[in-house]
What does this fold into?
Amino acid sequence: MDLAVIGAGHVGLVTSACFAQMGHRVIGVDKEHKVTQLREVDLGLYEPGLEEMVRRQQKEGRLIFTSSIGEAVKASQVIFITVGTPSNPDGSADVSSVEEVAQLIARHLEEYRLIVEKSTVPVRTGEWLKRTLRLYNTRGVEFDVASVPEFLREGSAIKDFLHPDRVVLGVESPRAERLLRELFGPLGAPLVVTDIRSAELIKHASNCFLAMKISYINTIASIAEKVGADVDLIARGVGLDHRIGQEFLQAGIGYGGSCFPKDVAAFIRITEELGYDFRLLKEVEEINRGQRLRLVRKVKEALWVLRNKEVAVLGLAFKPNTDDIRDSPSIGVVQLLVAEGARVRATDPVAIKNARQVLGESVRFCQDPYEAAEGAHALVIVTDWDEYKDLDLARLKAVMAIPVIVDGRNVLEPQVVRAAGFEYYGVGR
Ligand code: UDX
It folds into this structure.
């Protein structure tokens, strides 16, 4: 099929490359400067396997990039909108890019097109999309709107696209349903066919449930600390119940990224406008914000005085296998430590470049954990990168000023660390 994907960010690029690999002809659309970079396979983001896939699909002629929405609309039967919907200051989603793209699509409509919202958008955006497409489509060309929310996780986005747990098809016509079944059927996953509003709410409800699950286990971790229990053992015992599941029960300094914080805030705002006070989600947000404060308090407990202490921080990305630092709890911890007067030496396998733009010269960036640990009064792990799971403890001890480890993601084994002569502080254990 001939497809257009408008917006070449994380979701858009993964969508374009995967559809091309599935054999479709895909036109990716973004601003001119971004298109130039993409043609040279400079994606502007780190996602395992994506660069290779974009290079190959371009070489094989199934994927092209353009800055002209007109060209893409003319050439494609189905048009995916995957532009960013960042948070407004009040927490609501900024859908101005969606509206701008909808106007441009409408102006270029000459024959039937199916326009699919894939960006994470507030419920009822589908109706606004339809209205905009009708108002600006002066030739009254026939079209359909649909909602196919994405559930990609950064770091495993390609796998999540090609092997989804389910594909939600929010449609309003048999023609739209037929086209989307033809497109997503070959993935072999269950297809959940709904109306558009239900599809939009499935996205909010799923993401916010996962965020709630994380805040729930982080609350259990705080309780476990008070009674001297081990939250990782509790998570295992709870998660083996098939109705609960082991995933997203990892206690730590909380969730970050470009989705959970934004989706939780947006869902609170949307429901407020609908006249419902989503207190449960407000508590999820409150608990999450508190986790990074709780960790800094642990470092303070360990060091008594933070001012002028050298603190090594391992991890800056909001999760492993990405360079994304948007709303990263790790960055939050660094900022809190700096505000307390600590001298932070931070490292991360891939996110230093992005972190430097936010943290500037307020911290010293180091190439690896051992450089960061030199002269440190505490070593704080805040992103659970694999390489931090088997640190050479003897080597760390030899370079640190005093042997203190604060493990914000419970990546190390407490008894092993203590046996190596360290004081160990974890989360809920
Ligand atoms: C999330 C959703 O998982 C995905 O379905 C949606 O499409 C986009 O948002 P993402 O934000 O990329 O994906 O990463 P995810 O793996 O969900 O982690 C989000 C945050 O939760 C990270 O900061 C991670 O460290 C944290 N997390 C995750 C925990 O603290 N504990 C866990 O058990 C799992």
